[in-house]
Amino acid sequence: MAYCGKTQRQLQIRLKTLKRTHGVSLNSFPRRFRDQKSARTRLVGGHKVSAPDNVGNVHDAVSIIPTLSIADTFVDFGSRIGNVVAQVALETCVGRCIGIEFQDNLANMSKLLIRGARVDFPNLSKVTIHEADLRAMRPAVREDIDGCSVLFVNNIVFEPTSFAALGDFASSAAGLVLVVVMATVCGRHRPTCPRNFCSVWTLRQRIDVQVSWSSQLHHAYWYTRVVEPYI
After folding, report:
1. DSSP 171-203
2. How far is CA 72 from CA 148, 175, 214, in A?
3. Which CATH number fits domain 51-225: 3.40.50.150, 3.40.50.300, 3.40.1080.10, 3.30.70.260?
């Protein structure tokens, strides 16, 4: 795990200096600070993000999500160091962003870094990070995300049991209206597919997005409900 060599205090001073120079609004910052890729790198407090720690450059996949309102809750399964939930909290009017991360070191890191940046970026107060296993979530965590409306998952490296848990959650979350994943949930889908996920969700669009781990474009999959939920 590599770091940039600066302490949290030094990074906080840097952020305050930027505020004095450019103002408190992110819109007044130079483009390099507002660019989605740059913003995600800075929000993790100077941590040098490598591919195993990072979700990659998935901002294109997140950008296809329709306009979010204060009534929406955005959930990211496998949130790693919190890049995506921070991005959504800062750039949309979403009510809450919840990250679910299995690895305790990454979950604790994201909590620390997001907490430290809230003074300068108040919208990060919308973000909650839970250390949890998608396959065996604690009741309190499950209750917290049950009302989510949008789910994002970089599930490229998911094991079969995690894919199954993802499908079960998406099929049972009553308020969920949109699912965006980086690997198709049902690789052998057919019109008569018996999976619960396929009876509830339909693939609306497949888009090509840039990712950090490859020079080639990667697919992202946008699912909507077969029938809109009653909430």
Report:
1. HH-TT--EEEESS-S-TT--TT---HHHHHEEE
2. 7, 10, 32
3. 3.40.50.150
pLDDT over 80 at 226, yes or no? yes
Task: List the Cα angle 19/89/57 in 5-degree steps.
Answer: 95
- Rounded to whole angstroms, the Cα distance separating 94 from 218 reads 26
User: Which residue in the block uniquely carries the two structure tokens 């483009």?
Assistant: 31
Beta strands 201-209 and 96-101: pairing type?
unpaired
Q: Which residues pair with 220 in a beta bridge?
A: 207
How large is the angle between the packed helices 36-43 and 83-91, nearest 10 degrees?
A: 120
pLDDT in tens, 184-225: 998 777 777 888 899 999 999 998 887 766 778 888 999 999
Are 43 and 18 in contact by the 8 Å Cβ rule? The answer is: no
Quick check: 77 pLDDT over 60? Answer: yes
- Name residue 223's amino acid: Y
Stated pTM of the model: 0.74
- Give the model confidence (pLDDT) of 88-138 as tens digits: 999 899 999 999 999 999 999 999 999 999 999 999 999 999 999 999 999
Distance (Å, whole) CA 183 – CA 167: 12
